[in-house]
């Protein structure tokens, strides 16, 4: 049974509402900063899996809107990024990228070791390493044919998709608890800055919004996406293939910082809630994107490779958590910004850029804003890490 795009989007809205209501009424979910989309998304994933297992009926969703929502979200991130924030993020960005590179190497060696332990070709373990975990589903789909045709690993696609599925689920769950642990363990104080980059605070503060705030925000987001897609097309023509959301992030930054000061000041003066409008629309886009991503998971695909993938992912998750707590938090400054970045690092290591941002959003909704984290992590996830990961994978395959 295939559910079309309109009904899929409507179901995603219902599931996100369910997650929001559950989070507002469950102190345990707020304490560990479990992202709201995860609650409703997992509920849908469980229902779909039970339908397949018990009723032998496969439910699939038309996820055509999902990718656009991701573009919308990253355009919003760019539109709220000022040059001074980017400059402040320079050194942390280099440090975080270096740490991500180290973890990718660890993931690949761990994956190959687990594959050898299970009597598989060692390089099959790369499919449960940085390819599927740090790289995500896009990198998995791109590299699987190479492993099948060149290395003779016929189930490479199944291994990668299964590992990505388990990794995505784990990434959604570990960010908040890691942040709570670090704040308690190191007595890190929450910030009193109410101006969240994404999301609405859990403490009841309401943004000042009106008709024009939302309308200006929607216009700015659409212009950023149009410019971003143009940049993406231009880069593709040069042979540089980067995710489209990176181009939309860049476009948002350009619009924010190159817009004439007179125009920007006038809009801010007449409608001071424009940034709140961007925050709200971006938050909705991210929530719906992650909800739809979880709706699309097909857990029965783990059948046949479950034991190996589950064992390998247990090792990878433990390594990611230990690395985050003992290395990432320390090197990123041991402050509140470092806590938020650490919450997002689980998404970098095991899930996707959207998962990283969702984890950070959940933490900042609970404890306050962390502006630098929302610039550094998306740039590392979306712009640099795919390039570096491709080089690392090529070296291991060779």
TrEMBL record:
<feature type="transmembrane region" description="Helical">
    <location>
        <begin position="124"/>
        <end position="147"/>
    </location>
</feature>
<feature type="transmembrane region" description="Helical">
    <location>
        <begin position="373"/>
        <end position="397"/>
    </location>
</feature>
<keyword id="KW-0812">Transmembrane</keyword>
<keyword id="KW-0406">Ion transport</keyword>
<dbReference type="Pfam" id="PF03616">
    <property type="entry name" value="Glt_symporter"/>
</dbReference>
<dbReference type="InterPro" id="IPR004445">
    <property type="entry name" value="GltS"/>
</dbReference>
<feature type="transmembrane region" description="Helical">
    <location>
        <begin position="159"/>
        <end position="183"/>
    </location>
</feature>
<keyword id="KW-0813">Transport</keyword>
<feature type="transmembrane region" description="Helical">
    <location>
        <begin position="278"/>
        <end position="297"/>
    </location>
</feature>
<feature type="transmembrane region" description="Helical">
    <location>
        <begin position="238"/>
        <end position="258"/>
    </location>
</feature>
<feature type="transmembrane region" description="Helical">
    <location>
        <begin position="6"/>
        <end position="26"/>
    </location>
</feature>
<feature type="transmembrane region" description="Helical">
    <location>
        <begin position="338"/>
        <end position="361"/>
    </location>
</feature>
<dbReference type="GO" id="GO:0005886">
    <property type="term" value="C:plasma membrane"/>
</dbReference>
<keyword id="KW-0769">Symport</keyword>
<feature type="transmembrane region" description="Helical">
    <location>
        <begin position="61"/>
        <end position="81"/>
    </location>
</feature>
<keyword id="KW-0915">Sodium</keyword>
<comment type="function">
    <text>Catalyzes the sodium-dependent transport of glutamate.</text>
</comment>
<keyword id="KW-0997">Cell inner membrane</keyword>
<feature type="transmembrane region" description="Helical">
    <location>
        <begin position="38"/>
        <end position="55"/>
    </location>
</feature>
<feature type="transmembrane region" description="Helical">
    <location>
        <begin position="209"/>
        <end position="231"/>
    </location>
</feature>
<comment type="similarity">
    <text>Belongs to the glutamate:Na(+) symporter (ESS) (TC 2.A.27) family.</text>
</comment>
<keyword id="KW-0472">Membrane</keyword>
<feature type="transmembrane region" description="Helical">
    <location>
        <begin position="304"/>
        <end position="332"/>
    </location>
</feature>
<dbReference type="GO" id="GO:0015813">
    <property type="term" value="P:L-glutamate transmembrane transport"/>
</dbReference>
<keyword id="KW-0739">Sodium transport</keyword>
<keyword id="KW-1133">Transmembrane helix</keyword>
<feature type="transmembrane region" description="Helical">
    <location>
        <begin position="93"/>
        <end position="118"/>
    </location>
</feature>
<keyword id="KW-1003">Cell membrane</keyword>
<protein>
    <recommendedName>
        <fullName>Sodium/glutamate symporter</fullName>
    </recommendedName>
</protein>
<dbReference type="GO" id="GO:0015501">
    <property type="term" value="F:glutamate:sodium symporter activity"/>
</dbReference>
<keyword id="KW-0029">Amino-acid transport</keyword>
């Amino acid at each position: 049974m295939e559910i079309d795009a309109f009904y899929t989007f409507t179901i995603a809205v219902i599931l996100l509402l369910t997650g929001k209501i559950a989070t507002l009424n469950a102190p345990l979910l707020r304490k560990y900063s479990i992202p709201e989309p995860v609650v409703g998304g997992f509920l849908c994933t469980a229902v779909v899996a039970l339908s397949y297992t018990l009723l032998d009926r496969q439910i699939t969703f038309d996820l055509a809107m999902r990718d656009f929502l991701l573009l919308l979200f990253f355009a919003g991130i760019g539109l709220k990024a000022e040059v001074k924030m980017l400059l402040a993020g320079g050194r942390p960005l280099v440090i975080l990228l270096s740490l991500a590179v180290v973890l990718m190497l660890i993931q690949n060696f761990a994956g190959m070791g687990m594959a050898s332990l299970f009597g598989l070709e060692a390089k099959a373990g790369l499919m449960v390493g940085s390819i599927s975990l740090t790289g995500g589903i896009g990198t998995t789909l791109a590299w699987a044919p190479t492993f099948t045709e060149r290395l003779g690993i016929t189930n490479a696609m199944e291994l990668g998709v299964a590992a990505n599925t388990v990794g995505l689920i784990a990434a959604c769950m570990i960010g908040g608890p890691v942040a709570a642990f670090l704040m308690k363990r190191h007595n890190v104080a929450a910030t009193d800055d109410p101006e969240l980059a994404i999301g609405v605070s859990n403490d009841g503060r309401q943004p000042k919004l009106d008709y024009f705030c939302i309308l200006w925000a929607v216009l700015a987001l659409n212009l950023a996406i149009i410019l971003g897609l143009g940049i993406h097309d231009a880069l593709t023509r040069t042979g540089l293939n980067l995710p489209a959301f990176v181009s939309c992030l860049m476009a948002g930054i350009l619009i924010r910082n190159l817009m004439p000061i007179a125009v920007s000041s006038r809009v801010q003066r007449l409608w001071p809630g424009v940034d709140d409008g961007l925050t709200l629309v971006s938050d909705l886009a991210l929530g719906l994107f992650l909800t739809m991503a979880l709706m699309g998971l097909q857990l029965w695909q783990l059948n046949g490779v479950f034991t190996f993938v589950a064992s390998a992912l247990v090792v990878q998750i433990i390594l990611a958590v230990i690395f985050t707590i003992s290395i990432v938090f320390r090197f990123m400054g041991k402050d509140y910004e470092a806590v938020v970045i650490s919450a997002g690092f689980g998404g970098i290591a095991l899930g996707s850029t959207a998962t990283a941002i969702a984890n950070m959003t959940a933490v900042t909704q609970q404890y306050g804003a962390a502006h630098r984290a929302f610039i550094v992590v998306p740039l590392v996830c979306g712009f640099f890490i795919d390039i570096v990961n491709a080089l690392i994978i090529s070296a291991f395959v060779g």
